[in-house]
Amino acid sequence: MEPPVIHTLESESQVADALAKYVAGLSAKFINANGSFSVVLSGSTLIYTIRKLLEPPYISSINWSKWFIFFLDERVVPLNHPDSNYKLAYDGFLSKVPIPKSNIFPMKENLSPEEASKEYEQRLKQLVANKTLKLSPTTGFAKFNLILSGMGPDGHVASLFTWHFQRFEKKKWVTFITDSPKPPPSRITFTFPLINSADEIAMVVTGEDVIDAVKVVFGKHADDYFPLPAQKVSPEARLTWFLDKLATSKL
Ligand SMILES: O=C1O[C@H](COP(=O)(O)O)[C@@H](O)[C@H](O)[C@H]1O
């Protein structure tokens, strides 16, 4: 991996501008090179922060028909439930862009957390088999072009939390959790080997809530103790941090 790129912008709005430019640039690059662009969305604040992709010049210049959408983690609730990451992404983003419905891969409903995680992993493997997704020759896990991730105030990414064993998973592509410290408790989540097989990961982190976690992640002795999940993010090509001044105010 190249050294991480760190953008510290004055405001959340500037983060949203920079993020839209970055995503649009990668969309053009991957579509030119491979004919498609696989994007993994997280939930919570990320969907709001990608709002500028819905505005000119991006809304009409991006080749949305070539996008494939996946979910970094999902809460095990119906897809129309207010806690669903799919619903959040659909209402705030996916319903406003012409990505073909068949290119969007939400979690299957009405399954237990374990069944839902296995089903999603199986679906990803089928998409590798039919060449919709690439495989990382280095790790043997699916290789997404871009993962857009937030970070919680406790340093969690996806639904991988500091004191939960799922963060150490080495074999599974997708796992599950039934005691998430952040509600709702039941979730499915990409594992680190799958996350870190991506080409590009953007960590999009803004606001006051994350000040302490940002201080730990970028602290002087960041590697000297039990690392936060966010410190284990390490994609194959490039990690880019988008931070605002508020988030970095203790650095
Ligand atoms: O619960 C979740 O939290 C993380 C972090 O969200 P943020 O808004 O605090 O950055 C999010 O990435 C994940 O998708 C979501 O399920």
From TrEMBL:
Its EC number is 3.1.1.31. It holds the Pfam family Glucosamine_iso. GO terms for molecular function: 6-phosphogluconolactonase activity. Residues 11-241 form the Glucosamine/galactosamine-6-phosphate isomerase domain. Transmembrane segments: none annotated. CDD domains: 6PGL. Belongs to the glucosamine/galactosamine-6-phosphate isomerase family. 6-phosphogluconolactonase subfamily. This is Probable 6-phosphogluconolactonase. It comes from Tagetes erecta (African marigold). InterPro entries: 6-phosphogluconolactonase_DevB, 6PGL, Glc/Gal-6P_isomerase, NagB/RpiA_transferase-like. It catalyses: 6-phospho-D-glucono-1,5-lactone + H2O = 6-phospho-D-gluconate + H(+). Pathway: Carbohydrate degradation; pentose phosphate pathway. Coiled coil: none annotated. GO terms for biological process: carbohydrate metabolic process; pentose-phosphate shunt. It is an enzyme of class 3 (hydrolase).
